[in-house]
Amino acid sequence: MAKLWIAVVFGTIGILASVASSQLSVGFYEKQCPQVEAVVQSFVQDAITRKPGVGAGLLRLQFHDCFVQGCDASVLIDSTKNNSAEKDAPPNISLRGFEVIDAAKAALETQCPGVVSCADIVAYAARDSVFKALFFPHLFQIKLTSCFSFLSQLGGPFWEVPVGRRDGTISRMKEANASLPAPFFNVAQLTQNFAAQGLSQDDMIVLSGAHTIGIAHCFTFSPRLYNFSANASTDPTLDPNFATALKKQCPPGKAAAFNSVVLDSHTPIHFDNSYYVNLALQKGVLGSDQVLFSDAATSKAIKTSSVDEESWRAKFAAAMIKMGSVKVKTGQQGEIRKSCRAVNHS
């Protein structure tokens, strides 16, 4: 663990320096709302204890927020009669965790009204969902004395979250449809999609490891299982036995479209590097995941992460800090929403 913490610290120094130009900083709320991290953490932990899948949902929520209009909580805004918002775009229909952000925001508005942005709550919640989310002693019946060692085995890396984001006032469905990566993208498309956010191909590979937790609905990958091409009924990059197992959970037809499978069939509740191991075994659920191993441009990095978990964890923490600074609004830009679901003037 000591090596991991050192790696995270040194691996993120350059990233922290780069986000400083965006006016984000660790401890931004120290004077005005010093309890903010504890409040968000408590709501995240409570939600995950009741519904473990919310952890992956909160992490995914920040990804989908930052890729559209930047990290400004625009994904949280509800649609109105005059506007179809991001959250109702097809790629966002399955997003989870909105109620956790709402609850944390309500508590913070009571304690320090008009201070903490919804965008920063999303960033804190994503971090806490990784670090805290996968620790369920009541599910595994372990003794409290072994809690900390168990957490180190199951939980993900920790990183300090630079904050000071302001909330956006624009949320459009069409922008979400245009900006979010699709589950069938190839490496060139994924690389271009991340580059549009100022993120490198290496960032893309590292951040894709978030799929070590969470689920996928059948409709996002069923084209790999049936009538894949003129020459193959099933995607040949899928392990045949794994493909058979997926077909049992996702039979053909619309009735099964919203059935779901875990993205990591090996260790679905561990935040570990099994995602990369699975790709090397041709057991990636999404086409956009498996292609990272199939393509020569990215396969080496996949193999490296599959055998060096400590390095990947440190890189993941650094990449999350970098992604969290994408096109942020600071200073007098945007606003601090009173409700995360609506802009203040609505």
Task: Using brief descriptors, characterize the structure shown.
346 residues, 47% helix, 2% strand
Descriptive report:
The protein has 346 residues and is an all-alpha fold. The chain is 47% helix and 2% strand. It has helices at 2-20, 36-50, 54-66, 98-111, 118-131, 137-140, 147-154, 173-179, 187-195, 201-208, 240-249, 274-280, 287-294, 296-307, 309-323, and strands at 215-217, 260-262. It has a two-stranded antiparallel sheet. It is globular, with a radius of gyration of 20 Å. It starts with a helix and ends in a 23-residue tail after the last helix. The model is unreliable at 1-21 and 133-154 (pLDDT under 50).
Number of strands: 2
Number of helices: 15
Q: What characteristic shape results from the CA principal axes?
A: globular
Assembly state of the chains shown:
single chain
| Helix-strand sequence | HHHHHHHHHHEHEHHHH
Q: Which class best fits the helix and strand makeup? A: mainly alpha
The gyration radius over C-alpha positions equals: 20 Å
Helix content: 40-55%
Contiguous low-pLDDT stretches (5 residues minimum) are 1-21, 133-154
Strand % is under 5%
Largest beta-sheet characterization: 2 strands, antiparallel
Overall mean pLDDT score?
89
Strand order of the largest sheet: 1-2
* Termini separation: 48 Å
